[in-house]
Amino acid sequence: MSDPKVIVVGAGPVGLTAALLLGSKDIPVTVLEAESEISSELRASTFHPPTLDMLAPYGVTARMLEAGLICPHWQIRMHPSGDRAVFDLSILVGETDHPYRLQCEQSKYCQFVLAAIEGLGCVKVCFSTEVTRLRQTDDHVEVDASSPNGKQTFLANYVIGADGARSAIRRALDIEMSGDVYPETTILATTLFPFHDTLEGLSNVSYCWKPNGTFSLLRLPDVWRASLYAREGQSVEQALTDEGLQDLLHDIVPNVDRIEVLEKRPYRIHRRLAATYRMGRAFLAGDAAHLNSPSGGMGMNGGIHDAFNLVEKLIAVLRDGADERVFDLYERQRRPIAEDEIIQQAHRNRTRMQERDPARRRDMLGALQRMMADPVELKAYLLKTSMIEGLRRAAATH
Question: CA 334 → CA 146, 284, 328, 331, distances in Å?
């Protein structure tokens, strides 16, 4: 393999997607990943229609459809009454080849993309390789990394920082990540319990209000993932105990025996945006550039969209001889979408579900139910929440 044209830092969904897209055009790429293998942690699981459209030509969507679970509709639900607003994505027929959400674990997606990359002779993936330093010159970048083989230095034309919220590339560039952290801690728990057999009319993706609290349920082929929150006056540590988790799960289904929890993971939610997406020959993408509430499943998808947009520019420069000024368009197209569409939409989703006043909840649910009766308004809302509108807005930016 020749020296890489592009170094990608991070073997998560964004970095691996970028490597696949570059490699499919015979552009040499080296991926550097600090961990020893693809992460199997509980992370994102929702893939939106345009993301599935974009990945279909690479054979990835077909594999995901085999391994995942189609979600033809999603809902916002009042618990325990079951009053709900159900959003049927079939209204997007004609706007996308995949008018539904797909529930598939991020770890599986990464494995599928990695398998596709392994068939490309121009892509090399280096695990257990942690970036320690970045230097730039007028015509190349130099990336130092530590690995089991000792210190290594990699040279390339460009580097993509797709290495997540604690991005080493962003820190090396001293790019500010402004924003804040939401006060609550989310507890993600998986279980085999069949919520769909107990809660009438439940969608595979359901965001639920309960008295004095909230929870969400996302179904995967083999398990349900529940996002839970400690009760008022209860610490996160108390909520994470077996007794605490059983109490929270029995708020959802009270008249059942013990519910087995397979995995659990607490995490804090950030709302942050990088001051710039590019500095010289270095670029940021995905969580390295923007962080948002997972409500609505837009973060990982937005990062994958970053990768498609950026790689299009890299191919234009590296293969077709375009002027590097085309890189300025990456930030103009993607950063406002992260700020206005991804972060703000996720914030609105999160704020709605954090509402505690019963009257305000009824008003909001009623407004959503009335919108469902207006096909024009409903379609506009689904184009936005399915991330189609944001991609169209970016494509129209010059």
Answer: 32, 11, 10, 5
Q: Are 11 and 129 in contact (CB under 8 A)?
A: no
**Phi and psi angles of residue 278, each rounded to the nearest 5 degrees, phi first:** -145, 140
Give the pLDDT confidence of 279-336 residue by residue, as tens digits: 999 999 999 999 998 878 899 999 999 999 999 999 999 999 999 999 999 999 999 9
Question: How does pLDDT run across 128-139, given as a tens digit for each residue?
Answer: 999 999 999 999
Q: What is the CB-side half-sphere exposure of residue 149 using CA atoms within 13 A?
A: 7
| Burial grade of 228 (CB within 10 A; 0-12, 13-18, 19 or more) | buried
Q: What average pLDDT does the structure give for the chain?
A: 95
Distance CA 66, CA 62 (A): 6
Residue 219's nearest CA partner among 257, 187, 191 is: 191
Cβ neighbours for 212, distance < 8 A, ≥ 6 positions apart: 231, 232, 356
Bond preceding residue 80 cis, omega within 30 of 0: yes
Average pLDDT over every residue of 52-66: 98
Q: Report the first-to-last Cα separation within the chain, whole angstroms.
A: 36
Report the distance separating Cα 209 and Cα 80, nearest Å.
Answer: 8
Tokens of 24: 């499919």
Domains parsed from the chain with CATH numbers = 6-72+96-178+270-354+387-395 (3.50.50.60)
- The Cα 141–Cα 134 span in angstroms is 7
Most distant CA pair in the chain, distance: 67
Q: What is the DSSP string of 72-123?
A: SEEEEEETTT--EEEEEGGGGBTTBS--SEEE--HHHHHHHHHHHHHT-TTE
The conformation of residue 386, written as its DSSP 8-state character, comes to T
Break the chain down into helix, strand, coil percent, rounded to 5: 40, 30, 30
User: What backbone phi and psi angles, to 5 degrees, belong to 334?
Assistant: -100, -35
With bands split at pLDDT 50, 70 and 90, how would you rate the model's confidence at 221?
A: very high
